Amino acid sequence: MAEVVKMPKMSDTMTEGVIAKWHKKVGDKVKSGDLLAEVETDKATMDFESYQDGTLLYVGIEEGKAAPVDAVIAVIGKEGEDYKSVLEGGDAPATASKPAEDKAPAAPKEEKAAEPAVDTSNIPAAVIRMPLLSDTMTEGVINKWNFKVGDKVKADDSLADVDTDKATMEVVGYEDGTLLYIGVEEGQAAKVNDIIAIVGKEGTDVTPLLKGGSGAPAAKTEDKPAEETKATEESASASSSSDDDSRVKASPLARKIAKDKGINLNEVKGSAEGGRIVKKDVEGFTPSAKSADKGATATTEQVQAEQAASANAKEGAAKAGPTITLAPFVGEEKFAEKPVTQMRKVIAKRLSESLFTAPHFFVTVSIDMDAAIVARTKMNEVAPVKISFNDLVVKACAVALKQHPAINSSWLGDKIRFNEHVNIGIAVAVDEGLLVPVVRFADGKSLSRISAEVKDFAKKAKDKKLQPSDWEGSTFTISNLGMFGVDDFTAIINTPDSCILAVAGIQQVPVVKNGAVVPGNVMKVTLSADHRTVDGATAAAFLNTVKSLLEEPVRLLI
Question: How many CB atoms lie within 10 A of CB 181?
Fold first, then answer.
């Protein structure tokens, strides 16, 4: 059945919204959660999502036009469904119309059902609906009512506390009067825009509002003698042309700023399409002398102060030099979407499980790499395979892991496994994502052998020839971004390992040696550790061992 979509109340001060852009057009299929439109409020431009599935049958507000809160802006229903009865009858669902058949006139009962039109415009009461209190909210739970039926309430009173999907927030009635009706009990949920209360004149019959569902705040009128009413109307008519700016086309934000500054929008010239007044028009508006005289409430001192301020502003502008006007820049938003590969799905799943399950903590040390640079140069003069700094890190970690078995452990839920073998995973970047081939028994292998295996794994990974046996069984992982010039970073643990080491690049920086500042080569490494198996002191001790091994690389050859 067709359902109306109304202008939501997106902020506590919002009275109307401007449709900045429609993202769907009549005839488009719409799903719950789809972005229907962008709505400009008095505070920001916000996304408005659909809460129904179906076809967009009707759009009631054009782009750039304003509509008051709770006004019907669209209708969503089944394709081809007759939605006119919904528009005429308020919130009442409409059924699909059927072709006329050669039958007797409709029964009186059906005619009565087709006449839901109830004039609620003169009812001195206003409908309070469940507001949209967050961008993802679809319903709210009444945590507590702060008033009961029959209580007097003011416009700024908090009627109820509502639990949303993000927080407990207040619902303000924005009406003075008596609480006539409560539609949702404490602890019960109501969908966004559902009627939760009615506030109005004491003794008012709210049944037409509940049936008709117009919910528009009614004007608070009282019975007055005809002569007094006529006099009031004449007085209002006499001043409306100059004082009343309610009919001026302006954005909600511009109207709010004008109200705060005491600016009459009738005197402001709009720069937007159709002469509509926007924020910049109000902020750049300077009241004329005529309007200043018209106010007639300012004292001589106030006028003099305003004149002095204006003179100071002009003097300041003269000192600041000529005003620079920038030409408007128009850009075009573009994007491309690609389906998620199976590899990326697995990476996302595993890393999310790791980060949100294992309590990570991070420890960083800086390592003096001067000795390692010299040692690597000498090693490569005789080594059968060229040794990289990453190979030195792998070997240093393998040796250190034998000394710190807690780092070489795995969390298994009801027990901790302390691995006596050292299998180090090496993160390798490929076009589709990240692979982690494993150097097995790294503590017993030479630097040349480690280097050869890592190079072979990197080639297989890029050629997509790695086998599951190549990336299974790691006990510790190394992620090295040093070749990309990264200063430092943190990595997510490759479960079920307890730790991963993030290796940054070697930076040439000033260091202090023997009391003197000299050039040095420093590399930062950061250990990400699972606090369920590893404590801070243990992580620090492991990093200090790695640091000492790399600062004295001859120890790696023993």
Answer: 19
Confidence of residue 222 (pLDDT cuts 50, 70, 90): very low
List the catalytic residue out of 53, 161, 176, 531.
531
Give yes or no: 531 in active site.
yes
DSSP 8-state class, residue 247: T
Tokens of 392: 């030195």
Active-site entry in 151, 205, 243, 535: 535
Cis peptide before 496 (omega within 30 of 0): yes
C-alpha–C-alpha distance, residues 36 and 74, integer Å:
10
Q: pLDDT band at 5, cuts 50/70/90?
A: confident
Beta bridge mates, 55 = 29, 77
Reported as half-sphere exposure (CB side, CA atoms, 13 A), residue 255 has a value of 20
Going from the C-alpha of 553 to that of each of 435, 442, 477, 506, 547, the distances in angstroms are: 28, 16, 21, 16, 10
State the Cα–Cα distance between residues 132 and 168, nearest whole angstrom. 13
The dihedral through the CA atoms of 24, 27, 29, 33 has a sign that is: positive
Q: Among the listed ranges 167-171, 329-333, 403-407, 489-493, which one has the minimum average pLDDT value?
A: 167-171
Least confident of 62-76, 211-225, 465-479, 537-551: 211-225
Residue 250 reports pLDDT greater than 80 = no
Exposure class string for 514-524: b at 16+ Cβ within 10 A, else e:
eeeeeebbbbb
Strands across the sheet with 139-145, in order? Answer: 168-172, 158-163, 139-145, 189-191
Least trusted range by pLDDT, from 98-107, 183-192, 194-203, 427-436: 98-107
